[in-house]
Amino acid sequence: MSCDTDLPYDAQNCTDILQYAEKLVSKTFAEVLEESLLRTDFSDEVEYYDSSQSKGGLGNLLEKYYFMYEPNSLSQADFPDAGVELKVTPYERTKKGLRAGERLVISMIPNTEAIAEDFKDNFHLQSKLSKILMIWYLRERKTDNTLVKKRTEYRIDFVNLYDLYSEVCKKDLAIIREDYRKIAEKIIAGKAHELSESDTTYLGACTKGASAKKSLQPQWYNKNVLAKRRAFSLKQSYMTYVLNHYVVTGQMSYDSICTEEELQDSPFESQVINKISVYKGKTEEWLYRHFDLYRGKVAKQKNQLLVCRMLGVRTDNTEEFQKANIAVKTIRVQRNGRPKESMSFPKIRIGDFVRQEFEASYEYTYFSETRFLFVVFQETETGEYVLQGAKFWNMPITDLEGGGREDWQRYKEKFLAGVSFDIQSGKNGAIRVRNDLPKKTETNIFHLRPHSAKSAYVIQGVRYGNGRDSDMDSLPDGNKMTNQCFWLNNDYIAKIICDI
DNA sequence: GCATGATCATGC
DNA sequence: GCATGATCATGC
After folding, report:
1. A14-166+236-247 is classed CATH 3.20.20.140
2. CATH number for region A266-394+491-496
3. What stretches in chain A show pLDDT beneath 50?
4. Which residues are paired to A107 by β-bridges?
5. In 3-state terms, what secondary structure has residue A339?
6. What nucleotides of chain B have any atom within 7 angstroms of a protein Cβ?
7. For A134, phi and psi rounded to 5 degrees?
8. Which nucleotide is nearest to A336 if distance is taken from CA to C1'?
9. What is the pTM (predicted TM-score) of this model?
10. What 3-state class would DSSP assign to A159?
């Protein structure tokens, strides 16, 4: 490759590649085309890269017109002599700050050959992952989620060289190695069909292929069971961290749970569990006093705050949890062994819900990508609650795609068929509106129930409840009902946490 | 005693 | 004003 002396940069030198790439900042993709083609009419090229046929096209555009090499899908790195991979990736601005727009897909997980057990022996993946030239552009959306601009009109805002083996990424590397081990272990055990993105922390096994069903293929280690084609990827949540921590510095501050030394000793998850286990058997009252949290002052999320204190961090905006999309959930278990309550999730928008397919739904995405840290408080004989322990959990893909899909589908069908209501007036004139949606007892994993400040209905044009307009949501038939959300069934939760 | 509907409390 | 976590309250 050293014969490419006509390149405007030294393709063997990653510092030089980065310096050249940094000149892209504040240019749109169309401007890159214009400068490269040296002509005023480049509408054919613009049209091509704006069209949906050029999937991954913005990367190809830069390869061809800025870095001056022909895009290929060879398995070697984009800049082979420097060992650098080029990735063009979107980010978005939200109320909470900058956020990566997508996961970063690294390379396909093979299904026609063996896979290395250890990350250090998977040279192909390492070549694609260890040095990545990341080119970030702002992707804007309107409130209805549609895109604001054509692709070539996007502007490049940041350029950075991600180096997994650098000093700053040392802790990340330890976790990625562990993630890799988990994924490879499942594949080698012939359980590639049970892989889920939420199995792991930073490195995920995401599905690949237009429709997941089409991509079902035999496994190398289990020829009789088909599995979806998957790819190694850096999870979106981790990419958000990379953006805020390594790319745009000083944007967001994170607390760290584990030190580098701790991570060398044992994996992140056992570190967390150990830190919490120190306080096993202590009552909530004892913990509030110990951590100087007065019950009255921290009514909301007080046990969440306790978890932060036990982990030695100030806020729940911790480095590892943000990076790993881990949701901390505290659960209070009654004397009879059942969690007091089911667990709520964001409200649904019925209009959107009935138009979605399960595998593209918010619920599917959430449960396939989110890892939970359950922290359990158990009620004692005297009615106090003591810390029982904690565990990491993610919904097994078999539950999600089995019972979960069934539950979800039934609600969708019922909404489309029409919901009936029964208005009851109880004591002191309070109105209670019952509906005929599937009940919790009829579901496997989650059920739908109201979640709003107040109740509010419009049934056959008549208004019920004392809520506001914003407390209700429209049904396909024109009636309105109190906002609903999915709740993870408490008896399902009971089974998950019974081994804590 | 539990399911189901209703609502509170807080932080952004 | 709303999202979110947490919990209450009624009636079967």
Report:
1. no
2. 3.40.600.10
3. 1-4, 296-298
4. A232
5. strand
6. 1-12
7. -100, 125
8. B1
9. 0.77
10. strand
